[in-house]
Amino acid sequence: MTTYIKDLVDGKVPNAVGLVELTESDLTTSARPLEFDPDKHKVLNSEFKFLYTAITRARVNVWFFDEDEETRAPVFEYFQKLGLVRVIRMSGEANETDQLTSMFVERSTEAEWSQQGYYFYNKELWEVAVKCFTMARDPVMVKKSQAQLQAAEASKLKANPKVMRTQFLRAADQFLQCAMLDEGAKCLHNARERLLLAKLNRKLGKVSTPYSLNLEGDQL
């Protein structure tokens, strides 16, 4: 890196489209240039992969920190010369804490959590949707996501029909409390509760408020 900047100063690097233009005042270096050794610097292959991943995945900022001033000098100077970084130096002033805090990831809003919740809900990733709607303070969607999660978990219990039936009944209860009648009916069907399903079907066109399923009996 420092060798490249030094070559620019000496006029050894021709101008080319795509290179970042540097002014003469930007070309002063304090780090000692090193000759590139393909064998010695093989480690850079993996280091550059990590750097690429860090830069392309960061939501707000990428932080570079190295206690060794001599070791960090080449890459620090390189990024500074290209104008790609902002240098933060701690001087002990009282306002520095607020300055640093503002540069970290911002807290997501409830609207953003809700948006992500609907994204995961539509992808049928119920467990993640529950977490997102919880952070969004949306109790209605939390209950709907929990009902969907309960039904999804029940469908995995085919090897144990008795337990599966109980879990589908619980899912039906949760769906009915959310006024999700079609989903509740499917769970009653899967639980082979024909009597309850028949009663629900008679009410499908008349229900205007959520119903609670009594798991101990057969009353809707």
By DSSP, the count of extended strands is 0
**What structural class do you assign from the helix and strand content?**
mainly alpha
Relative helix content: 40-55%
Number of discrete domains: 2
Question: How would you characterize the overall build of this protein?
Answer:
This protein has two domains: 2-103, no CATH class; 126-203. The chain is 55% helix and 0% strand. It is built from ten helices and no strands. The longest helix has 17 residues, at 161-177. The termini are far apart. Residues 211-220 have low confidence and may be disordered.
Show the helix and strand layout.
Elements (H helix, E strand, L loop, with lengths): L1 H8 L33 H15 L11 H13 L14 H8 L6 H13 L3 H10 L3 H16 L6 H17 L3 H10 L3 H10 L17
Helix pairs in contact: 5-6, 6-7, 7-8, 8-9, 9-10
Summarize the structure.
This protein is mainly α and about 220 residues long. The protein is about 55% helix and about 0% strand. It has two domains: about 1-105, no CATH class; about 125-205.
Name the descriptors:
55% helix, mainly alpha, elongated, disordered C terminus, 220 residues
